[in-house]
Amino acid sequence: MTFSSLNDRKGRIEMARRGLTLIELLVVVGAISLLLALSLPALMRARNQAQTAVCAQNQKTLALAWLLYKDDNDDRVVGGYVDTAGKRPHAWVQGRTGVGTAIDRQKEGIRQGTLFRYVGSKVEVFRCPADQKKADPGQVVYRSYSIADGANGEGRQATYTPAQKYSEISQPAMKYVFVEEADPRGKGSWVINPLGESWVDPLAVWHSGDRSTLGFADGHVDIHHWVDPSTVEMSENQVFFCPVPPDEGSDLRFMIGGYPQKAKDAQKNGQVG
Questions:
Q1: What are 198's strand-pairing partners?
Q2: Is residue 241 a contact partner of residue 199, using CB atoms and an 8 Å limit?
Q3: What is the distance between the alpha carbons of residues 205 and 213, in angstroms, rounded to a whole number?
Q4: Per-residue pLDDT band at 6 (split at 50, 70, 90)
Q5: Is residue 36 classed exposed, middle or buried when 0-12, 13-18 and 19+ CB atoms within 10 A define those classes?
Q6: Coil, helix or strand for 273?
Q7: Whole-angstrom distance between the N-terminal and C-terminal Cα of the chain?
């Protein structure tokens, strides 16, 4: 072995001991960054899909609990509205559970509600893991779901009478009961005007950027795809009485068509059946 080759061998050994060169290190960092860039969208999709699956299961549990309640109560459906004092008889949840209410008190209002024992006494059933409602700094609005006002709610619109018995709801497989709502006040009822041309209360669109879950009066769940951009904007900005642009309206018509109410009012308001 020559003196030159011996020095070359020693140099390679010394370089190996020192570890990676700067160029080699940059190559490794670049490769890792590329892998992360490629995998993050897939991870986000998987996370969103998991959240949607949990939310849909929550809706399924609530819808079945709603049915069990009417079976135990001579066809009467649970109260879908909660007043300020939280003393409305047979309310599905008690007390307002929104902005300004401590998280423990919000959960206690859920526990005191009529449906709580029907969902296996699990508070987490009432919250979607993708919930993005905006509240005051330091506040958490726990409950994600509301009952449609036409299902024994407060009756805020003169155009319909809320159904108080299950038999008063025509075609229950086409009528939703539970919605994801963007209203942070937690009044426990979601309102729409079946004869209106704009929204009343804001929906929540938390899944894949354009989807929400709905729990129906026959117990099934739908992950509904919204098609109007204004529906997503209404959710993001939590807009009440949101107008619908002239070239849109498919989403509003869908929700009007599936709104629960007494059958006589459904026919009067143009619903099939």
A1: 243
A2: yes
A3: 9
A4: very low
A5: exposed
A6: coil
A7: 98
Closest CA to 126 of 204, 180, 184: 180
Are 59 and 178 in contact by the 8 Å Cβ rule? The answer is: yes
Q: How far apart are CA 212 and CA 223, in angstroms?
A: 6
Token digits of residue 143: 């409950």
pTM of the model: 0.82
Q: What is the DSSP string of 152-181?
A: TS----TT---B-BGGGSSSGGG-EEEEEB
Q: Give pLDDT tens digits for 147-182.
A: 999 999 988 788 888 999 999 999 999 999 999 999
What's the CA angle centered on 61, arms 184 and 257, to 5 degrees? 65
- Closest CA relative to residue 112, chosen from 159, 75, 79, 138: 79
Distance between alpha carbon 20 and the CA centroid of its chain, in Å? 49
Distance CA 110, CA 114 (A): 9
Burial of 87 (0-12, 13-18, 19+ CB in 10 A): exposed
Taking the CA atoms of residue 126, residue 176, residue 94 and residue 50 in that order, the dihedral angle to the nearest 10 degrees is 0
Q: Where are the domains of the chain?
A: 3-268
